[in-house]
Amino acid sequence: MVKVKSTQDKKKGHFQAVVYVKLKDGVLDPQGSTIKRALADMGYKGIEEVRSGKVFEITLNSRNRKETEKLLDQICKKLLANPVIEKYNFQVR
Amino acid sequence: MKFGVIIFPGSNCDYDAYRAVKDVLKEEVEFLWHQDTSLNDCHCVILPGGFSYGDYLRTGAIARFSPIMKEVVKFARKGGLVLGICNGFQILLESGLLPGAMLRNQSLKFVCKHVYIRTEVIETPYTNLCKTRQVLRIPVAHSDGNYFISEEGLAGLKDNNQVVFRYCNASGELQPGYNPNGAIDDIAGICNEHRNVLGMMPHPERASEGILGSQDGRYLFRSVVRFVKKEKGI
Q1: Distance CA B189, CA B183 (A)
Q2: ipTM of model
Q3: pTM here?
């Protein structure tokens, strides 16, 4: 998983965020279904569904957590995710 | 009349489009650079095929923020003619000038072959020389041509007659096996409500001369010339 600095050694105003972008439910995911088939071919049983997505690690300076979240929301909407087919969420540390 | 062909970093059908206009249509054409901030009074702007910005993030996602795209959006909102081919179509979707989005081809493979498309709407600046349901043979070449739109969005497209091209067989029938990418409702090309913006996955510029195996792409370019000359009286 993603390594994140602990709160103690974090510089003031320095934030690390992990952004997850996934296809919306109901949008076909050809990559996910191909991976699922491959897993079945490899002998893994019981895999019900695989959905693919993207992860972005972003380091940024901003005044506070609230401002950071606002900014991240904006860049997700504008660039990182396409709202027609994708949904997103993020964690800030 | 004058065409403009935008060059984004990674465009690779820019010269094909330029040649189709200049040498086949014998009309004026100039290249527009992605960092330009003027469309130089072009009557029709072509966003060519290719892999702008390496298709990073999503196809067309970065190109839509090029300086020239601000002008393209303004131009389109005023009724200017904007034709997006393949990656150009993807950029138009990302920029919001056309509804929907592109997904990876259902096969996950790059598809490069001639396909048949049926002209569903002839009352557009791009298809006015076609007959209703005319079948055109035009090549596709893409990895992300699996057009997607929500159910409501699709209903809207149909209600407003915005589905301009559908993948079909040689006789114009919609049949399984003729849709190269899994696009919803066999959609190969759509226009906006005002019909001045068209996006299509097949490459008409690659089907504009006999030596290329098909000349059907000429219908599109000639329709544009006819439309502009009639509208603007030039």
Answers
A1: 10
A2: 0.83
A3: 0.92
Is position B13 annotated as part of the catalytic site? no
Helices (H), A1-93: 30-41, 65-75
Q: Please write the tens of the pLDDT for every residue from B8-33.
A: 999 999 999 999 999 999 999 999 99
Cα–Cα separations (whole angstroms), residue B49 to A46, B87, B146, B171: 42, 5, 16, 27
| CA distance, residue A33 to nearest chain B CA (Å) | 10
Compute the 3-state secondary structure of chain B and give helix, strand, coil in percent, each to the nearest 5.
30, 25, 40
Burial class (CB in 10 A: 0-12, 13-18, 19+), B123: exposed
Q: How far apart are CA B95 and CA B60, in angstroms?
A: 8
State the smallest CA–CA distance between residue A29 and chain B in angstroms.
8
CB atoms within 10 A of CB B222: 18
| Residue B203 appears among annotated catalytic residues | yes
The question of whether B30 is a catalytic residue gets the answer no
Cα–Cα distance for residue pair B51/B193, rounded to 1 Å: 27
